Amino acid sequence: MENRRLAQAILNYVIVFCAIITALFVMSHYIRNSLCGKWREAAGVFGKGEIYQPQLDN
Predict the structure, then answer these.
(1) CA end-to-end span of the chain, whole Å?
(2) Residue 11, number of CB atoms within 10 A of its CB
(3) Per-residue DSSP letters for the chain?
(4) Alpha carbons 9 and 19: distance in angstroms, whole number
(5) pTM for the complete prediction?
(6) Domain ranges of the chain
(7) Handedness of CA 22, 25, 29, 34 (dihedral sign)
(8) Residue-wise pLDDT tens digits, 4-58
(9) CA 7, 8, 9: angle at the middle one, nearest 5?
């Protein structure tokens, strides 16, 4: 009986772990876009909103 409980507990942990990994995989696009947006916003603060244009760099 104890082996069955242990197996059930391990199975529960595996299912929860797979659900978390699946959720992160599905949301990875949104997470990446959010991080890129925050990075772009932070860079805009330092650059005062200007975009680098190499032809104007004389």
Answers:
(1) 79
(2) 10
(3) -HHHHHHHHHHHHHHHHHHHHHHHHHHHHHHHHHHHHHHHHHHHHHTTT----GGG--
(4) 15
(5) 0.55
(6) 20-46
(7) positive
(8) 999 999 999 999 999 999 999 999 989 898 888 888 887 777 766 667 667 765 5
(9) 90
